[in-house]
Amino acid sequence: MAAWFGRRQNCRFNQQTRGIMGERTLRRDRAPKRGGQAEGAHRKTVLGGACAAAVFALVPIQLAGAQTPDHSPSARAADATPHSLPTRVGVLTWNICGALSRDGSPSCPGTSRGKINELVDRVNHDRSIAVVMIQEACESLHSRPLQDALNHAGSGEWVVRHRTAKSPGTDNPVRCPRTGRKDAGVAVAMKKLPGTDLVYDKQGKPGWDMTFTSTSEPGGKHTQGAACLQDRGNKLLACTSHFANANADPSKQMRRASARDFRNQARSWQNGGYRTVIGGDLNLKPGDSAIRPLYSGNFEADSDEKCTTTGPWYLKGCRNAAGDKLDYIFFSDRGWDLVQGRPIYVGSWSYNIGRLSDHWMLRGVVRPSA
């Protein structure tokens, strides 16, 4: 999760400052899909990869919690053959606006419980969802309660990985204003599928933290990165990130480097035979050149329409004049066919009128392919 501390650039009440996104370079053909819907069928490539904010991949169990696994693609390819995947795999990403101010603040509305309930209700009504990514989340208020709520019946079928953010160029964890604890960041949740073999870090926690090592920050620090969960049994990797905003990164160099690193690290896993899903709030718009690397070897859930994921609720819709598309889900070209990808504008009453976040959820659904 990138540095988003300080004044928000994409809040519903302040749309003046926005990240800039790169132009899509993904080549796609249009083809009719099952059920009479037109869906984008993407060209497969041998090499895939863009870790933008959520990735499916695999990491060895010896992996340190704050390090990206140091395994060659050949070693990864030697893992077990993937088990059968569901015919449809759904992914959600949502900047819940939960780590910048106290509950009920006009700039980041809604209660912590309300945000979690909205996510869980969505998952309960869409059984295809296997990955959930959240940004601007506090571990104590959101990430742990999300895991508890998803496993409310004691099934234990969901695991969550939280990554605490650090201020750029420092070793200082970002504090959660709602609790005072230094645990603000991002989290990714994954449902255990048939044949799942999850990777745990040295502390016994599921998943691992990805670090973007190309960012230029004071003191040679590298604070930007992603939270990742790896299913070794199904050769899946899911990662989420939150790139720096314009206050922390006015030149966009940090975001540009983050996009390259996310893509490159996802590609390494893809070259080893893995399906990847990466995404989050990247604080870039579709027309920004900084986002382009992520379209190399990947396709985005809403590449065709590029609907806005921010903006005032009374103007909500795909073409919100006061909003931007800042949220993305990238799927590896190899192993997935797109079924559908769109923001979610309708939910509970509080969600509908923008009282839970200044972002809308983005949902992508894919079908496993050879």
How does this structure look, described?
This protein is α+β, with helices and mostly antiparallel strands and 370 residues long. The protein contains 5 helices and 15 strands. The chain has helices at 73-77, 112-125, 139-150, 253-271, 349-352; strands at 28-32, 38-42, 56-57, 89-95, 129-138, 158-164, 184-191, 208-211, 225-231, 236-242, 275-281, 298-300, 327-332, 336-344, 361-368. Strands 3, 8, 9, 10, 11, 12 and 13 form a 7-stranded mixed beta sheet that branches. Helix 2 packs parallel to helix 3 (139-150). The longest helix is centred in the C-terminal third of the chain and has 19 residues, at 253-271. It is globular and about 50 Å long. The two termini are 32 Å apart. 57% of the residues are buried.
Secondary-structure topology with pairs:
Layout: E1 28-32, E2 38-42, E3 56-57, H1 73-77, E4 89-95, H2 112-125, E5 129-138, H3 139-150, E6 158-164, E7 184-191, E8 208-211, E9 225-231, E10 236-242, H4 253-271, E11 275-281, E12 298-300, E13 327-332, E14 336-344, H5 349-352, E15 361-368
Parallel strand pairs: 3-9, 4-5, 10-11
Antiparallel strand pairs: 1-2, 4-15, 5-7, 6-7, 8-9, 9-10, 11-13, 12-13, 14-15
